[in-house]
Amino acid sequence: MAEPFLSIQHVRKSYGSNTVVQDFSLDVEPGEFVSFLGPSGCGKTTVLRMVAGFEEPSAGKIVVAGKDITRLKPNQRNVGMVFQAYALFPNLTVAQNIAFGLKVAGMPKADADKRVAEMLDMIKLPQMADRYPYQLSGGQQQRIALARAIAPKPKLLLLDEPLSALDAKVRVSLREEIRSIQKKLGITTIFVTHDQEEALSISDRIAVMYGGKAEQVATPFEIYNRPATKFVANFVGTLNVLEGKVTDAASGTVQVNTQQVSLKGKLNGSKSGDTLSLALRPEAISLGSQPGHDSRLTGEISEVHFLGSVIRVRVGIGNNTVSLDTFNNSATPPPAVGEKAEISFSSSDMLVLH
Amino acid sequence: MKSGKFWAWVVFIVGAAYFFIPLMATVEFSLRMRRGVHSFDAYQIVLGDARFQSTFLYSVVAAIFTIILGVLIVVPAAYWIRLRLPQLRPIVEFITLLPLVIPAIVIVFGYIRMYGSNSPLPFLGSNMGANALLVIGYATLALPYMYRAVDTGLRTIDVRTLTEAAQILGAGWGTIIGRVILPNVLIAVLSGAFLTFAIVIGEFTMASLLNRPAFGPYLQNIGANRAYEPAALAIIAFAITWGCMSLIQILSRFAPKSANRPN
Q1: Do the domain assignments include residue B263?
Q2: For chain B, what is the largest distance between any 2 Cα atoms, rounded to a whole number of angstroms?
Q3: Domain ranges, residue B156
Q4: Is the ipTM of this complex over 0.90?
Q5: Contact partners, residue B243, CB within 8 Å, separation at least 6
Q6: Chain A residues touching residue B263 (CB < 8 angstroms)
Q7: SS3 assignment, position A170
Q8: Spatial separation of the C-alpha atoms in residues A321 and A319, rounded to whole Å
Q9: What is the pTM (predicted TM-score) of this model?
Q10: Interface test with B, best of A48, A54, A73, A75 (most B CBs within 10 A)
Q11: Chain A: residue nearest B179 by CA?
């Protein structure tokens, strides 16, 4: 395997007796886009700030391109960073902001001007060079901040919740722009977010963090479809959790309410009589029978929400409630509350949460 | 007219009269030097006096050095306290308030004892040393105004994020303070600077006890021995103060634009 470009090795960060990051390790390949996803206080920003040099790890090592940068000051690391609050210098114009890092590095003015023009073209704001930050919208300011971070050609790009302060529409367009620029430049990028949709849509890999630890590091597909822990399963996407009891561990039979479901090969280490949490994504469940679905449960429809193209239905199965979406069909009216209903799914889609 | 508006005008007129009547009386008195007619004789005498010119120039130069010293001390200190040592803020605020509580005469006697010609740091052993001591004393007197002005300016910007943004772009502390922080608190620094200027121009106690040829002792001397010239000098001093205030307003238009400015 090739040498990782960024290697975070057994990093820990404590403030007095409070440990906010515990034994965090991650290898990032050159040109890879990795997201740190997790709730507030999970330590994702602290890890990013340690990579940037704003926080010093209490233990562990951070290596970039084979060089140990753990004790280097932020201004010696050649790392670009975009902040949640834009952090453009209010006294400088857009062009001067982008040129700041180039000037500090001692680049001749003509070269710096050329690079600034390139950057403005890249973010599609060439007409904004002489504006001040206060004359720009939030989305424009963040694009300028991105251009400023990339202008000095950093080895690594760090994005600290760069889309959090923007409205929904701008967020989607800017995240696509960030990803396309990152791919074009091939720059290794760490992106911190608490928004799972953001992380799932633009990352090569995601590190889901909780309580200062990485719960799972994997591709978005893996994270969503094969969550490694109960936290990851609950945090990423919507999940229906059913309580079940193992009735026959050898054949993989589990009882949900009073009905039997077969989960052959999924009950690693479980014994007959054990209680399990089983999870199903809403899109894995169909109302009625479907080809390929080998498991069925019956219940009663408890809620129906007509959302236009989609109808969200909740089905009560004993103490459990299952939520699923069906597409609207003008020829078929939505099911009624109180009706008996059968739901079907493939047992391979059923997750056993540990 | 609504009664609220009427009383607002009454209060405004009374306030304006309280402010302008003594001023106009002083102006009128300063023009009465020549019997029977109004003239600018008192102003001509004052402005033509070689001692006025030399003492005023001395105080202007002292004020400029005081401002430079104040900025060099206060800007990095206030910045560092906001960035890294916020827990020290109440203590530093208390220290900066001390010059308002401790009379200038106490400070200057302390200086004379500490820095006399027989002390290890004999500031008062030479003219240049005494001038330096006067500037240091003035910087102390101006500390409450300069610190508060700069601290208020720093409050309007996100000091930590701007510092980190500059750091990650490769900037060292000098560049961060000089190119990021100072330009963004320039108006606040200028306000502090002009307040310092106004204090230094009229200051009497320190200059007199350190025996410096400053404008304050000259004002006192003229006031004690002449009739019309002190009134003319008071008007000139008033004009200088208002000139400083106007300069703050004018310079603020050329100041860097702030992201915090309302659109």
Answers
A1: no
A2: 73
A3: 50-254
A4: no
A5: none
A6: 134-135
A7: helix
A8: 7
A9: 0.79
A10: A75
A11: A91
Average of per-residue pLDDT across A14-20 = 90
Q: In the 8-state DSSP scheme, what is residue A32?
A: -
Domain count, chain B: 1
Residue B37 lies in a domain: no
d(CA A232, CA A227): 6
In chain B, the residue whose alpha carbon lies closest to the alpha carbon of A76 is B170
Asked if residues A164 and A131 have their Cβ atoms less than 8 Å apart, the reply is no
Residues on chain A touching B189 (C-beta within 8 angstroms): none
Average pLDDT of the segment spanning A214-243: 88
Q: Tell me the domain boundaries of chain A.
A: 6-235, 240-353
DSSP B123: G
Return the number of other C-beta atoms located less than 10 Å from residue A114's C-beta.
13
* Tens-digit pLDDT profile for residues A145-180: 999 999 999 989 999 998 888 888 888 888 898 999
**From residue A87, how far is each of A26, A189, A214, B257, B260 by CA, in Å?**
28, 19, 28, 15, 12
Output the CA angle B174-B175-B177, nearest 5 degrees: 65
**Phi and psi angles of residue A332, each rounded to the nearest 5 degrees, phi first:** -120, 120
Hey, which CATH number is domain A240-353, 2.40.50.140, 3.40.47.10, 2.60.40.790, 3.30.390.10?
A: 2.40.50.140
Residue A1 pLDDT exceeds 80: no
Is B144 within a domain?
yes
The CATH code of the domain that includes B74 is 1.10.3720.10
| Residues facing residue A11 across a β-bridge | A24
Measured CA distances, A235 to A38, A141, A230, B255 (Å)? 8, 31, 8, 48
Does the distance separating the beta carbons of A75 and B172 come in below 8 Å?
yes
Q: Which residues of A touch B167 (CB under 8 A)?
A: 53-54, 73-75
Gap from A69 CA to chain B (nearest CA, Å)? 14
Options 3.40.50.300, 2.40.50.140, 3.90.79.10, 3.30.70.20; CATH of A6-235: 3.40.50.300
Q: Dump pLDDT digits (tens) for B161-170.
A: 999 999 999 9
**A152/B202 Cα distance (integer angstroms):** 51
Residue B21 inside a domain? The answer is no
Please answer whether residues B189 and B153 qualify as being in contact, where contact means their C-beta atoms are separated by less than 8 angstroms.
yes
Q: How many CA atoms lie within 13 A of A142 on its CB side?
A: 21
Residues counted in chain B: 263
DSSP code string of A237-274: S--EEEEEEEEETTTTEEEETTEEEE-TT--TT--TT-
- What pLDDT is stored for residue B1 in this prediction? 57
Report strand pairing: A188-193 vs A33-37.
parallel
